[in-house]
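Standup notes
- HV: blocked on the assembly model, inputs below
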Amino acid sequence: MKQLKQILGIAVLNGKWILRQPLWLVQSVIAVLGMTITLFAWGSNLALNNLVVAYLIVGSWSLGLNIVAQTIGWNRVDHVYESYVASPISLPIYFTGTIIGSMPFFSTHLTTAVVVSLLCRMDMTFIPIVLLLALIALILGAFLSLSIILRLKNPTNISAITNPLQTLTTILPPIYYPLTFIHPPLRQLAMALPTVPLMEIGRWLASLPTGLNLAFSLVSLISWIAIVTALVAKKLKWGQE
Amino acid sequence: MTSVAINTAELGKRYGDTWGLKNSTFNIKQGELAVLVGPNGAGKTTTVRILATFLRPSQGKAEVLGMDIVKDYKKIRSRIAYLPQGYGINNNLTPLESIKWTLVARGSSLSEAKLRAKKWMELMSLEDCKNRTGWTLSGGEKRKVAVGMTLAADADVVFLDEPTTGLDVEARHIIWKIVRDIVTGGTTILLTTHDMKEGETIADTAVLMNHGQTVNQNTPQSLIKTLPYEYRVTMKKEGLNGTTHPDAIDLGDRLIIYAESDKKVRDLMASFSDLSTVLSVNRVGLEDAYLHLVGKGEMPE
């Protein structure tokens, strides 16, 4: 119970900015609505089905990569991190609280995914299991970002790193379009980006067409988890540095 | 018998090839307000960051409340609070929210946190800005919020790294009064400053630091008594009539001259052609003791 209260405290401290500046949320809602209308206008049900998976995976990936990692990065710059270390707050409490504090952003993606699923009369049973995958995406995104920004010599450029990284990993690769759209040899290459195997596994869980054998995605994802966890473990220390 | 709250022995921290802290040795009793004084780069912040368990020392030992800072750091963290230098408050929260939710994050219940936050808003004279977010607060108000967030934790040992730097006199006095009230209640506070006057005014014990080493530790009054002088005379150089004073401190067109007694001050002033060149005559203070100790080379090897 005490830990839950502590998590709530961190969530409010690190997430209040989202509620105090609601235009960030409005921007997020407009972006997901715009994308949904675009695909709906082109008349592809398959695209909308893919979009539901993409919203859950990309929404959580971006939350980890951009919002959670930036919050932690700024906490370090502002020396807030140090004051948390020298207190009864533990790293798991801090990390969980920061994720929960950032959740309002994910709610826009989740709500849209559910609404689109309802409107398209999709089978929604895959959503809970894809949400578990989304949690992995969130943590992996946060770890990838942190493994880079915690090594920056000039930490004031945090968003200059995380924003381009988000665009690179979510807009360019086959996330909103199918992996089968690109030439077969390039499909394996695309697997080098962590969001592609996450999406492929998501499509598989939602019974949507995939571009490669699931084993490729699993190997790529497990490799990313191992590498990024090792990289971040070296830098994300809870005191005793 | 009063027990020791903080104890360090030859504490050091190396960053690559450079020693940020080389030999910090001192002890602070429970319920004392200790001040680490020294110029920028003296090792004050590194000392505090080690004691607050944020940094691991490269050499030496330290204990907080009898617990080893490396082996028992988790236990220590439940009994300390730390305000780092340059701490930036969250501008999206009001002062009341900042204090309240920091207490909740430390483990207080919501109702208790709310009550304590209100009390600390009053103590820090922040009631007027309780509904304003950090964006609209002045630098001094933000600092008071940060100090309030730290002290409201009701920790046994509190580390405050330069909490009053850049504050106006009134804000400084509010913080001084509160930290004095808290130590009277039994809390131990270790505060860093490069303002010797601050150290002299509020400290029970002063730890003088320079170049990553402890120069000396004692009460400010005892450190001042080590001086062979009683007075400092600040004057314009033009009033000297060519007389030289070997112990004088040159401040460009002004000088600080030390005198052993009030008789020496009178003799000194009698030698001046124009008394209006004398700007002030004061009793010596911690700053003079620091300069004397550092200048005399009383540095540990």
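- HV (later): unblocked. Chain A has a mean pLDDT of 92. The interface with chain B takes residues 2, 5-6, 8-10, 12-13, 16-17, 20-21, 77-80, 82-89, 93, 97, 239-241 of chain A (CB under 8 Å).
- Next: hand off to the docking folks.
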